[in-house]
Amino acid sequence: MGEGKTLPTYLCRNCENPLALGEDLISKTSGPAFMFSHAMNVVIGPKIERKLITGSYVVADVMCGNCGEKLGWKYVETFHLKQRYKEGMFVIERLKLTKKL
Question: Residues of the signal sequence (predicted)?
Fold first, then answer.
């Protein structure tokens, strides 16, 4: 059995609270943020409608469950069929993260 590549754990840069696993990383090419399929140890704020570059969405802000730092947002609902794959995904700003192998 071959050895697999060790994936990092992504942590809050402010308090080092674990936020996401490398296996949940969907995209590193989302500009100044990463997209994850799952996040942990976070608090999700109320749903709000927001216009983003790719269209209008219902999103919820995501904060660190330990220190309260605003990290990014979660896509709750989209109004465009082509963007539906984003529903349930978490977008976390690169500058708010650090990673540990």
Answer: none
**Cβ-based neighbour number of residue 73 at 10 Å:** 22
Which residue from 39, 18, 36 is spatially nearest to 101, judged by alpha carbons?
18
Q: What is the DSSP letter of 77?
A: E
What DSSP state is assigned to residue 8?
P
Rounded to an integer, the average pLDDT of 10-38 is 92
Rounded CA gap, 3 and 90, in Å?
Answer: 29
pLDDT digits (tens, 9 = 90+) for 33-72: 999 999 999 999 999 999 988 889 999 999 999 999 999 9
In this structure, what DSSP letter does residue 15 have?
Answer: T
